[in-house]
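Retro notes - structure team

What went well: the batch runner handled both jobs without manual restarts.
What didn't: labels got mixed up in the shared folder, which is why I'm recording both outputs here explicitly, each with its sequence directly above its tokens.

Job 1
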Amino acid sequence: MDQIQWQGLDGVARIFSISTAYESIRPTAGTVPWFDAIWFPNCVPRHIMSRFSKSPFFECRYSTDVWNHALEYTQITSSHEWSMVASDTVGFRANKSAASLVAKLLFGATIYFIWQERNSRLFNSKKRAAKELFGVIYSTVRLKLLSVQFKESCQIDQLRIACKLK
């Protein structure tokens, strides 16, 4: 029986498969400092791609209004400058507390839904008020938090009350 061979960049011939071809040609690098702020247990994958794409839309009045609603539920400082908000979120990367999880989920969901709102306004001429959009963000994060298994503590009880998880 014939077999197709794949010679990777390392010069070693292997039996061909898509995964071996991909692994041999994909660029590799060390882990970046913000990796854990993006990929963490309980993250929402569709919120990841827009998370660190700097956008002037994030700095407009509408986005500021949406972000102000989100700040009420996080330990992120009240900065509206992109680099400061991203830096605060990266600061939570190794923190496994419930408050850290809420901050990372809210940050990702806020960026994702602001970008979605931008596209809706540009391509569909549909607009939502900032408070209405935050309602969507809050519901998304709340539903995600309902699926998380937390260790019981006073902090978790406070989180459940604040986010209406009970």
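Job 2
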Amino acid sequence: MSGLVDDKWREKRGLLAHNLAVERGTSDGINGFHGCPRLMIEIGFLDCTRHHIHDYAMSRPNARLGSLQFQWDVARSHGRRQNVSIQYKGNGSCFINVTPGSFYGRLFPSNSINLFHSSNGLHWLSQDPLLGCKDAASLNKGHCHIVSTSPPEVHRAYLKQYQQDFKLFLKSRSEELVPGGAMVLMHLGYHETPRRTSWEIVSLILNDMLMEGLIEEAKLESFNIPVYEPTVEEVKHVIQEEESLFLERLEVVISAWDEGMSIEGGDDDSFHGENRRAEIISKHARAAMEPLLSEKFDTEVINELFVRFQNKIMQTMKVGKLESATFVMSIKKRLEAVS
């Protein structure tokens, strides 16, 4: 986040008696809290800060609220390392509000928010992108996501749903931001070199299991993973259509799938090290996808799926890199509405 909130915005916030920030993470896990230390450093010295935390699913709100004290301790520690004093001036307080609901729609009052931050949530679509498509069951037969053999109609359906969702997201946030307010978004995306995604790997494995008679055809045909990783051009196109906003900056960060994961047991170059890395990657993928998969498949199927997923990761690591692209964006609301 450093460098994406400019000095002019910092100067302006000093004129505000209250600063309202919103943190949004993914549907599970603690991604929503990862930006908190830096965010608290950026705005923590205001007289009064209200920090709304919105999570898409809000599955464990009590546990997440309990971790805020830990995040504050992390922020203070990070500040000391950066020679930054993290404290609130005067008798100011930090008010925490958890707001349930989907971010594909309005959540807060108009012109009330100064800063939004979202970490790795916007690639999740609001619904199955093939809903309403003619002959949806046979359109991407045997698969639940975009694969190399998918017909063009499947990609178009995913892109159309993404465009609708992201457009609604931007419109809603624009109405909630104050003029000159900002958003910092971290968004999984597709960049340059063709690569295999974890969603595609899951789709291919489920297809294998279908061929082996381990899952029912009807269940797989009625299941599609509602995830789309757009290109930079596709992201920019949607932002340009929302005339009340402008893209100030976009950076592409390429990282290994296991970057930042805690991996113990074995040298990275050893077989044991590779197996451990594949296991950790598999566990992270399962944490993200299991709630969705469990709506269609039983535990035995899911267990077998991720045993095969781990093996596939091991095989892939032997022949190439497993990398993903994250788009880090700074988007601002114009001071005056475009006529």
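One thing worth noting from job 2: Residues 1-5, 9-17, 43-64, 78-91 have pLDDT under 50 and may be disordered.
We'll revisit the folder naming next retro.
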